[in-house]
Amino acid sequence: MTTAGSAIDPTRAGFGRRVLTFVHRHRSLQLLLLLAPPVGWFGVVYLGSLAILFVAAFWYLDPLTSAIRHDLTLRNFGLLVSSPVYRTIALRTVGIAALVTVTDILLALPVAYYMARAAGRRMRGLLFVLILLPLWSSYLVRVYAWRVILSPGGPLDWAFQQVGIQGVVLYPSDIAIWIVFSYIWLPYMILPMYAGFERIPRSLFEASADLGARGRSTFRRVALPLATPAIVAGSIFTFSLTLGDYITPGLVSRSQFIGNVVYTSQGVSGNVPFAAAFATVPVIVMAAYLLAARRLGAFEAL
Amino acid sequence: MSRRLLGLAATGVLVFLYLPIATIALYAFNADRSQTWPITSFTTHWFGDALGNEAVRSALILSLEAALAATAVALILGSLAAFAVHRFRFFGRESLSFVLLLPIALPGIVTGMALNATFNTVHVPFSAWTIIVGHATFCVVVVYNNLLARLRRSSASLEEASMDLGANTLQTFRHVTLPMVGTALLAGALLAFALSFDEVIVTTFTAGTQQTLPIWILANLQLPNQRPIVNVVAVLVILLSAIPVYAAQRLSSDSGGLTDRG
User: Fold this and answer.
1) How far apart are the first and last CA of chain B?
2) To the nearest whole angstrom, how far is the Cα of B206 from the nearest Cα of chain A?
3) Residue A44 domain-assigned?
4) Domain annotation covers residue A23
5) Chain-centre distance of CA A110, in angstroms?
6) Do B231 and B133 belong to one domain?
7) What interface predicted TM-score (ipTM) does this complex get?
8) Is the model more confident about B68 or about A148?
9) Are residues B82 and B24 part of one domain?
10) Number of domains in chain A
11) Short-list B121, B95, B69, B207, CA closest to A42
């Protein structure tokens, strides 16, 4: 901080300094300058795109000409509600997303708690890197790795045979989807959960111990409630990432997910209106989820 | 006792996290084109094949370009939004976090389709820029959250002291604020980069016929002939990413001085 005085050359700084002083004195101008780029980007690029998609859900594909008609109609939604096939797909997707979220919470708890409370400084840093690294390695390769592991003749099949288990087919199957999703999104749960545990002041743990609570009840009655917003924050990722994925189901199972139907309708059949209509299902589910998450303070914990 | 059990469970989860990566790393040296276990003979010659592959190289370059540009945009937009929310009260302040979170909270396929519909409606041809626009949109929140969390934890009195001692806005920012939040920005940038480099769902809607590394992998992973090269590319990606993550971790643990952690 010793160079602070010479950071701005006084001979050149006349205009720049006047601008700075002006901006410094006018807080609303500062706010405008700060907000204009992000709000502009999200307002135009993102919310604008979502609006176009939303409107497209009320268009329809002319069955005779295969052209998209821009008259507003509810027929896509009618098809969604009346067809048991799409209802099953929607329920399967939401169900597996919920199952994956619960699995990831259970798997993340010991790691996150160990990192925040039991590990030393060096160990904590090492674990942090070890959990961050899989996030960096290609998502697809990790799905592919599981495909190799689960497929007949692969390592798991081999291990099963060594212990005398025969005829378990995990690939392709819905169990494979559950394993792979839980695996892929696990770091997204561990990191916010760790941050949540780490934020809890040490004194609360000491107080809990002073009052006679053992490790287990301190965890259940002090740490867990205080880390709940962080856990909910992590669940936003695990739940949403599962809801919107179409790659994993396509690679490790023969089941249809919302994402598969949306992708095929949009890409293969060119039925953008129906794809847009079906895509509103995860949006509505996530909107409800996010509102609930906000009530639980998850946004503060992200 | 309980601590040992916790350590054991944590170790188990870590093994689960690394087993598939280790498996693929082993398969990268598999001399046999088939993927049956156990591997009987090993070779390094797939590495040469992968590095000599033109499609792999150009996909890698496109991925790096897209990730770097998306991270840059995310750093700017995310920082501006974080400073605005931290320093000011304004109409819609509460909603801003919500809107920034939407691209990552909403399923990727929704963001992808929405951008795809827009590019088609406004007749924007697919290019590296359409990929970058998509990636930057969902990367902003990562930078924003990291920075905002750090700003909330650091004390405002240091900045006030700097101003009281006669430093102007720019000097205070450069010599007080920036060192205070630097590691948070770096962490945010790393996560943003990771998010972009890894992304495949939004990209399938914004890339047109271009191939990023994940899209190259997706196109080739079903082809039995290409499996050895896919395995090698996987290992290279893991190795290439380990270095910056490790460096960033070292950086952020060295400078804890100006924040009130612990």
Assistant:
1) 26
2) 12
3) no
4) no
5) 20
6) yes
7) 0.81
8) B68
9) no
10) 1
11) B95
CATH of the domain at A184: 1.10.3720.10
State whether residue A255 is helix, strand or coil. Answer: coil
Min distance B6 CA to chain A CA atoms (Å): 6
**Under an 8 A CB cutoff, do B90 and A8 touch?**
no
pLDDT over 70, % of chain A: 94
- What tens-digit pLDDT sequence spans chain B (262 residues)? 477 888 899 999 999 999 998 998 899 998 888 778 888 888 988 988 888 899 999 999 999 999 999 999 999 999 999 999 998 888 888 889 889 988 887 878 889 989 998 898 888 999 999 999 999 999 999 899 888 988 888 877 888 888 888 888 778 888 888 888 888 888 888 878 878 887 888 999 999 889 998 899 888 988 888 888 988 888 877 776 666 666 666 655 544 333 333 2
**Residue B79 has what pLDDT?**
95
Return the biggest CA–CA distance within chain B: 71
Taking an 8 Å cut-off on Cβ atoms, the answer to whether A276 and B234 are in contact is no
- CB atoms A46 and B10 under 8 Å: no
A199 interfaces chain B, CB cutoff of 8 Å = no
Same domain, yes or no, for B143 and B172?
yes
Do B213 and B150 fall within a single domain? yes
Distance set, CA B195 to CA A71, A93, A188, B108, B112 (Å): 38, 23, 11, 12, 15
User: Which pLDDT does position B240 carry in this prediction?
Assistant: 67
The residues, ordered by sequence, that sit 6+ positions from B17 with a Cβ below 8 Å of its Cβ are A130, A131, A134, A183, A186, A187
Q: Cα(A288)–Cα(A274) distance, rounded to whole angstroms?
A: 22
Q: Whole-angstrom Cα distance, residue A88 to residue A260? A: 13
* Phi-psi group of B232: left, alpha or beta (phi > 0 → left; psi -120 to 50 → alpha; rest → beta): alpha
pLDDT, residue B58, reads 94
- Closest to B256 in 3D by CA, of B187, B172, B189: B187
A1 to chain B: nearest residue by CA?
Answer: B175
Residues of chain A contacting B100 with CB distance shorter than 8 Å: 38, 42
Is A297 near chain B, with CB under 8 Å? no
Does residue B147 belong to any structural domain of this protein? Answer: yes
Contact A244 B106 (CB under 8 A): yes
* Residues of chain A contacting residue B20, judged by C-beta atoms under 8 Å apart: 142, 145-146, 149, 183
Residue B25's domain comprises 1-43
Contact A278/B at CB under 8 A = no
CATH code for the domain of B78: 1.10.3720.10
**B113 and B73 in one domain?**
yes
CA dihedral angle for residue B187, residue B188, residue B189, residue B190, rounded to 10 degrees: 50
Q: How high is the pLDDT of residue A197?
A: 92
Phi, psi of A60 (to 5 degrees): -150, 160
A261 confidence band (pLDDT: 50, 70, 90): very high
pLDDT in tens, A18-62: 777 777 777 888 889 899 999 999 998 999 999 999 999 999 888
Q: Does A200 touch chain B (CB under 8 A)?
A: no
Residues of chain B in contact with residue A46, where contact means CB-CB under 8 angstroms, are 99, 102-103, 111, 114, 137
pLDDT tens for residues A223-256?
889 999 999 999 998 998 898 888 899 999 999 9
B154 and B201 inside one domain: yes
